[in-house]
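ok so for the tutorial part 2 we go from a plain amino acid sequence to predicted structure tokens. step 1 is just haveing the sequence, like this:
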Amino acid sequence: MAVHGFGVTEFQLVLLRRMADFRPEPVEEALRRLGATRAGMREANKRWQAMVRAPGFPSGGRRWTAVLGAPEAVLPRRVGDLVCTARQWALPLWPDLRFEVLLAPGGAELNAWLVRAPGSRPTVLRTLADLTPWSCVVADLGAAFPPAVPREGSAPTRFRLDFTAPDTDGRPCACTADFTWGLLQEVRPA
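step 2 — the prediction. this is what the tokens look like for a chain of 190 residues:
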């Protein structure tokens, strides 16, 4: 399913455009796998921005269905006292992940990002050396190094976690991890 020729492939290019700000190397490899160029990635992002700002374009959960088709899974997800709905789609670039949109009761969008696919195993995260770009999603890092403290990112598609993890010598190191669309981009000392 696609709206005006904009579907899963183009949406993956939108995700990559934001990730290129942090990690151009894996983005270049992903573009090769998609048979796309940097110019094509920028054009897809430009079209996406125009579509989501257009007066008649659907909002909330309908926006994602219009572009990505029917979700692979629709799951209840408790957030505090709310019972929300998580809709998930598979994206070919990240077979062990799912693009998830979290909707509040009534359909308001709470979050949209990549999450671990059901049944897929996360990368084993024991030290800072294991935290390489694209190696994990927010929940993976939070589970490996609790308590991870969420912080607002520098843009709506970005997220940060403050956490402490051992370095390669086993010494604890306070760090900040930056994620784009829920996928790890970089880790730096706090």
